[in-house]
Amino acid sequence: MKKFFKLYSNCIKIAVAGAMAYRLNFLLTTLLATILNALFPLVTILIYNAGASFPAWDFYEVLLVQGIFLLTSSLAYLVFDGVLWTTMYHIREGTFEVALLKPLSPLVFFISTTFTPEIFGGVVAGGVLFTVAVSFTGVASALAIVQFLLLFIAGFCTMAGLCMMMAATTFKWVGNSRIPEIYDSVMTFGKYPATIFPQVIRGVTAFAIPVAMIGFFPASALLGRIDTAAFFAVIACVLFMFLGIWLYNKMIKLYEGVGG
Amino acid sequence: MNYIKRKFDICKTVAWVTIKEYIAYRTHMLVSLFVGPVYFAVQYFIWGAIYGSGGEIAGIEYAQMIRYFGITALIGYLTWGSADWNLSMLIRTGKFLTFALRPIHHRFFAMSQKAGHRSLALFMEFLPCAAILMLVFNISLFPAHFGWFALSVILASVIHFFIAYCIGLFSFWVVRTDGLRLVYRLFDSIFAGFLIPLVFFPKWMQLIQFFLPFQYTAYVPAMVFLGEYKLGGYELTIPAIVGIQALAALVMFLISQLMYKAAIKRFAAVGA
Fold it and tell me: Exposed end of chain B (fewer CB within 10 Å): N or C?
């Protein structure tokens, strides 16, 4: 583990140095990403401006859900997004041997070497939305902060699992650049308070594909509205991440080395 | 007459070749059969919760809102295109030279490609997704005026093509248009009306939309489908708004023509 963190910190330094070689491009990309991501709650703003609302949720509470969603997903993409695109590229080109010949697991190799600093803009935007929302909603208690942190990490695990499943899918579905759309569409359920969805969808998004953990549950914890079911969902999130790791390693066996 | 027939034959040939090319990647299109209904399901539940017991929001009733989101999702399948990316790639790699040497305008070639690609999408995305939305969500997807709606969708697809082509033409000046295309996609998704009906925007922003091309690619055909058009405090008849849409298509054509003439002078044919 120590070896991994040393390797990872070195790779981050290289990725940042690489981005800094074209620092104007990096700064502009990051600035653009920040602005684009800051528009994430636009629909919510327009809905509330029109005098409508999500039942039992005021504007800043919904903003909190969406700020946490953006923060968690951006942090996860910072670490794992490159795994999907690099895996897809190597499978399509038939050059995945580059990873197979390394003296460490291909998944660890790709996680280490594909840190994407350009996604930092999403983290900044998510942080700003989160801060603004919390400044209006407040925090229920000190315990709520502890619960929030636990659920936030669980949400990160869900995102990690999703990213690895996306990457794993590319072994079977070679060169399909629309794979992320499939996962993004499912993630959309996590962008809104789960209470507005029917019971079946709430169950699925809490335990089967736990996208409710990416925004809704951590926000509920901060607001002091947490349901005990959320803590059981933490187990689902951890299992989901391990399922992603298992699936990726399993799918490597499908690699045929001929491109496609 | 011979000129038109020749053009039509070229368009048909290019479109058919494009269909054969993309049918090899049919599973890419079939992704829409999952993604489209899932996105729609989210909207269905969100607006169901917001409307609660009924009423109107921004002058739109719940049933209208659901039909709006259903039809905008479907219109997207008929108007989507990647002319910006294709043209940008051709210019960056220098491959545009092969098109400059051909006896037809590249814009006509690209538009014929789009005609083929979207014809395939009609059968592989539009119709199956429409069937899913009607059967699963029980919404009516029959337009108020079929003829006007069909014309409006064709014009929307043409306008979308010209906008994308103009974005692609910027590659003659800036080589990498990734950032520009990203901004365009964002503006398109917001101001075309895919995220939310434009009547939810502040009035001054609604008025600006008359002078931007985005609303003509989704909002206008969606409102023609619903049978009433209103924006910025104005209510227009269906023939009037489709007429304005046709004018927007003409303006976009002229802009693309002017840009093409200015851009081609910069072409060095060596890539970058």
Answer: N
